[in-house]
Amino acid sequence: MATSKKTPARATGSKGAVAKGRRVQQQTDAKDQQKTKASKSAGKKDTAKKQPAPTSPRPKPRPPLPEQHLRKPGQESRLDPRPQFEAPDYRGSGKLEGMATIITGADSGIGRAVAVLFAREGADVAVVYLSEDQDARETKRHVEKEGQRCLLIRGDVRDPEFCEKAVRQTVGAFGRLDVLVNNAAYQEHADALEDITEEHFDLTMRTNIYGYFHMARAALPYLHKGSAIINTGSETGLFGNAHLLDYSATKGAIHAFTMSLASNLVSRGIRVNAVAPGPVWTPLNPADKQAKGVANFGKSNPLGRPAQPEELSPAYVFLAAPSCSSYINGAILPVMGGSTG
Question: Residue 319 belongs to what domain range?
Answer without folding.
Answer: 94-335
